[in-house]
Design brief:
Blueprint: H1 4-18, H2 40-44, E1 78-86, H3 89-100, H4 107-114, E2 125-128, H5 133-139, H6 143-155, E3 164-166, H7 178-185, E4 189-191, E5 198-206, H8 210-221, E6 226-234
Parallel strand pairs: 1-6, 2-5, 5-6
Antiparallel strand pairs: 3-4
Helix pairs in contact: 4-6, 7-8
Length: 241
């Protein structure tokens, strides 16, 4: 019986040799055996979040002695959030390629940038933030699930897509205030069997945290031991301290 896995790997290597990869962002060559679709130079240009960070929501703090205006009104369910890079320039472009152009293989580069985030330690399950059914049908895939799968493969962590579902369609959050965003997604999620599990939610972009807060609330109510979250990118806050 032929070894199909070995054959697939050999064909993939031949494809890279005959058709060298091109970076989706700068259009330069990827080089080597890279399958990430984003060259290392473009990845190096992603801007990491500076410390110090809010202990809970992970927002960079200029005045850490003051209360954080991002998470001070959050309910207790979501314990910690950490993000890898600012949602700017090349990082914004790679999120766009993932969400709207169907290039889900970029998640391997995104996951590599996230692997050192604080919540990603110990025995846990990765749970992607689900899309509403209508948006999932339109897009054809959930970008957060692809990101969670890439992160799980990189770190050897189990992924539990059935741990959370979205049970209510919600209007787009783009033009809403933080308070309106939280109200918009409250009650929008239902958790599966997560009793006694430590969960880390996975999403592409952190804006105000409203979606993560609502998702964590559903998981905690279903018996999760602890819920943290990680995102690839973080939008600059529209509040000042």
């Amino acid at each position: 019986m032929p070894d199909f896995a070995k054959l697939a790997a050999e064909l993939q290597h031949l494809e890279r040799y005959l058709l060298p990869g091109e970076c989706l962002l700068c259009r330069g060559g990827l080089g080597g055996d890279s399958d990430e679709l984003v060259c290392r130079l473009c990845q190096a240009r992603w801007i990491r979040l500076p410390e110090p960070l809010c202990a809970r929501c992970g927002e960079p703090r200029l005045l850490p002695e003051l209360d954080c205006r991002i998470c001070q009104g959050w309910p207790a369910g979501l314990a910690m959030v950490r993000s890898s890079v600012w949602h700017e320039a090349g990082a914004r472009a790679v999120v766009h390629q993932l969400k709207y152009e169907g290039w889900w293989r970029v998640t391997s580069a995104m996951a590599r940038s996230m692997r050192g985030l604080e919540p990603l330690t110990g025995r846990l399950f990765l749970v992607p933030v689900p899309l509403a059914a209508k948006r999932l049908r339109t897009r054809g895939y959930n970008q957060s699930e692809h990101l969670a799968q890439a992160l799980g493969a990189l770190l050897g962590m189990p992924v539990k897509p059935a741990g959370l579902s979205r049970v209510r369609e919600t209007p787009t959050q783009t033009a809403l205030t933080p308070e309106e965003r939280l109200a918009n997604v409250t009650g929008a999620f239902r958790a599966g069997d997560v009793r006694g599990l430590r969960i880390v939610l996975v999403d592409d972009v952190f804006t105000t945290g409203a979606t993560l807060v609502a998702a964590a609330d559903a998981l905690v109510k279903a018996g999760a031991e602890r819920v943290d979250a990680v995102t690839f990118a973080r939008a600059r806050a529209r509040v000042v301290e």
